[in-house]
Amino acid sequence: MASSNRAVTFQNPKDMRVESLDFPKLQMPNGRKAPHGVILRIVATNICGSDLHIYRGSFPVPQGMVVGHEMTGEVIEVGPDVEFLSEGDLVSVPFNVACGRCRNCRARRTDVCETTNPKVACAAYGFNLGDWTGGQAEYLFVPYADFQLLRFPDRDQAMAKIRDLALLSDILPTAFHGLMEAGAKPGSTVYLAGAGP
Q1: What is the value of pTM for the model shown?
Q2: Which of 106, 117, 159, 174 has its CA 20 to 30 Å from the CA of residue 97?
Q3: Domain 4-95+126-172 carries which CATH code?
Q4: Which pLDDT score is estimated for 195?
């Protein structure tokens, strides 16, 4: 087990640094133990437009915050309450943090989880929403792992396509959500414009 965690941190606008931080623990940002969580070794990650907004100083984030919310990883430590994941599993991490237990999560509105951020009903990794450490790092703590993580059933196949699978964490679901909100259906003709994939 590693003793430190190299991670990309925000210092000031246009000042990001790689720092060695403490290895993550199975605990929530408030220090409460999280037996429902896992520790991941990050295998692949993306840089999101939101990371670029942070870099440019478009909105405030805490100095020293680890950025990033588009990641895939290998489970290397499993909390005692985790039932469906094992060490060695390869998983995709959603960009938002959700418990799977609250009213909103049960209604499939994980984007407004009521329990993972004490200030507002919304939490995200590597953002100014709930003090969750981001995934532009070597290791990451993920709470509510049975609910949060998408396990890839064939590790070898997944590793062969890991760059494509990294799109599942944010880019693909964001695009899909936009299409659904716009009312696109199978057979619809749509026009997509933007700088992202």
Answers
A1: 0.88
A2: 159
A3: 3.90.180.10
A4: 57
